[in-house]
User: Which sequence fits this backbone?
C-alpha cells in the first residue's frame, strides 16, 4: 500500500484491521470529546474534530476504505465536505454518513411529535353493606366527567388549514451549531394544521363535561379499601389519546353481628351456663343463612369454634374462608331464692377451685 498523506487509522486511534463497529465506536468517542459546541473557542479541538470526521467519512464507508487501503489517499479529495472547518449543510446535506452516529450522541434529528396522552383517572367512593360485599352487587353510580366533544370529535375546531410555517409536516428543520435537527412546529404544536374556526360546542377545548349514570359491578368478596376499576370511564385523553379509568374505592358499613378479617368472619355467640356446662346443639347465624353447631360439655367462656367454609369468598379464587364462633357465657342477673339454692347446691358439688393456679403461683 502506498503511503497516505494522512493516516486515518492513527487519527481515530484504531488498528488497520479494525471492524466497522470498532471504527464507529472510536469515532463516537472522539466526536463527543472534540465537538466544537462542547469546546467553544478552542481552535485545536475544532481542527481535531474536522480531522476525525474526515477519517470516519472514509473508514466508515466500506468502498472508500478499500480504495484508501489500496491507493493510500482519499478518492474524493481532501476537505471536500468542509467549509471553514464545519460541514456545509446549505446543499441539503444532512449528516452525510454520520446521521446514525450523531443521533446516538446528541439525539439529533429525532424531534418531538404531538404525542397522544392518556386521560386522567377519576376516583370516587362507594359504601356497601357486609352482605353486599359478600355476594357482590351491581350498583348504579352517577358522575360528571370530561369526554371528547362530539361536535368536533375532540379536535376543538370546526375547520382547519395547513400550517404555513411547517407546510403540514408538524416539524421545523433547525440548525444548531454543527447539526440540523427536526423540532416540533410551535405554530401548530406539531399537528401540521391551524384552526380557522373554533368549535362552538366546546369552545376549542376539544372536550365537554357530561353527567352520566353507569352500572358499577362490584365483585363478590370485595374487601374494604379495595379499588374496582372501570376502564375507559375516566377523563378524556388529549391529542387523540385514550381516556383514563374510573377507580371506585369500596368502604363497608360495620355489621351488628359479624367482624371480618381477610376472608374469615368472627361472631360472638351467647350461651347459657347450662349449655356451657352440659353441652348443647344451637343454631347460629352465618352471612348467608343459618347453621347448627354443637357446644361440647364444659365449654369455657371465650372458647372458639370453627365453621369451615362459612366465611367470605376470595375475589381471586372464589374459595370461601371460615366463620369462627366465640362462646360468651351469659350469667343471669335476676336470681330467685329457689334458683339461688340450686346454684349453691351445684357449687357444693363442684370441687375444683378455678383460682387454684393463681394462688399457687403467687
Assistant:
Amino acid at each position: 500500500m502506498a503511503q497516505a498523506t494522512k493516516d486515518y487509522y492513527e487519527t481515530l486511534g484504531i488498528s488497520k484491521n479494525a471492524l466497522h463497529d470498532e471504527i464507529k465506536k472510536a469515532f463516537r468517542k472522539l466526536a463527543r470529546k472534540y465537538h466544537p459546541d462542547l469546546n467553544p473557542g478552542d481552535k485545536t479541538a475544532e481542527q481535531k474534530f474536522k480531522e476525525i470526521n474526515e477519517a470516519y467519512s472514509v473508514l466508515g464507508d466500506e468502498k472508500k476504505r478499500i480504495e484508501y487501503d489500496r491507493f493510500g489517499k482519499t478518492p474524493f479529495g481532501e476537505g471536500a465536505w468542509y467549509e471553514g472547518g464545519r460541514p456545509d449543510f446549505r446543499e441539503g446535506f444532512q449528516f452525510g454518513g454520520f446521521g446514525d452516529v450523531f443521533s446516538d450522541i446528541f439525539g439529533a434529528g429525532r424531534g418531538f411529535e404531538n404525542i397522544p396522552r392518556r386521560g386522567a383517572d377519576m376516583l370516587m367512593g362507594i359504601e356497601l353493606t357486609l352482605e353486599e360485599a359478600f355476594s357482590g352487587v351491581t350498583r348504579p353510580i352517577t358522575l360528571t366527567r370530561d369526554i371528547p366533544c362530539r361536535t368536533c370529535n375532540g379536535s376543538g375546531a370546526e375547520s382547519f388549514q395547513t400550517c404555513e410555517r411547517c407546510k403540514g409536516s408538524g416539524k421545523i428543520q433547525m440548525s444548531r451549531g454543527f447539526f440540523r435537527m427536526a423540532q416540533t412546529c410551535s405554530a401548530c404544536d406539531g399537528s401540521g394544521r391551524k384552526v380557522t374556526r373554533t368549535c362552538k360546542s366546546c369552545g376549542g377545548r376539544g372536550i365537554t363535561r357530561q353527567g352520566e349514570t353507569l352500572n358499577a359491578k362490584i365483585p363478590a368478596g370485595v374487601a374494604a379499601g379495595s379499588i374496582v376499576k372501570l376502564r375507559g370511564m375516566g377523563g378524556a385523553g388529549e391529542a387523540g389519546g385514550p381516556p383514563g379509568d374510573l377507580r371506585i374505592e369500596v368502604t363497608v358499613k360495620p355489621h351488628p353481628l359479624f367482624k371480618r378479617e381477610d376472608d374469615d368472619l368472627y361472631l360472638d355467640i351467647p350461651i347459657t351456663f347450662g349449655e356451657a356446662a352440659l353441652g348443647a346443639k344451637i343454631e347460629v347465624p352465618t352471612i348467608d343463612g343459618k347453621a347448627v353447631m354443637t357446644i361440647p360439655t364444659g365449654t369455657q367462656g371465650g372458647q372458639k369454634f370453627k365453621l369451615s367454609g362459612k366465611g367470605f369468598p376470595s375475589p381471586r379464587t372464589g374459595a370461601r374462608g371460615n366463620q369462627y364462633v366465640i362462646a360468651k357465657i351469659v350469667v343471669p342477673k335476676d336470681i330467685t331464692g329457689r334458683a339461688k339454692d340450686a346454684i349453691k347446691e351445684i357449687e357444693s358439688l363442684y370441687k375444683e377451685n378455678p383460682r387454684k393456679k393463681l394462688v399457687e403461683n403467687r
Observations:
- The first helix runs from residue 8 to 12.
- The CA atoms of residues 139 and 216 lie 5 Å apart.
- The domain at 117-147+203-254 is CATH 2.60.260.20 (HSP40/DNAj peptide-binding domain).
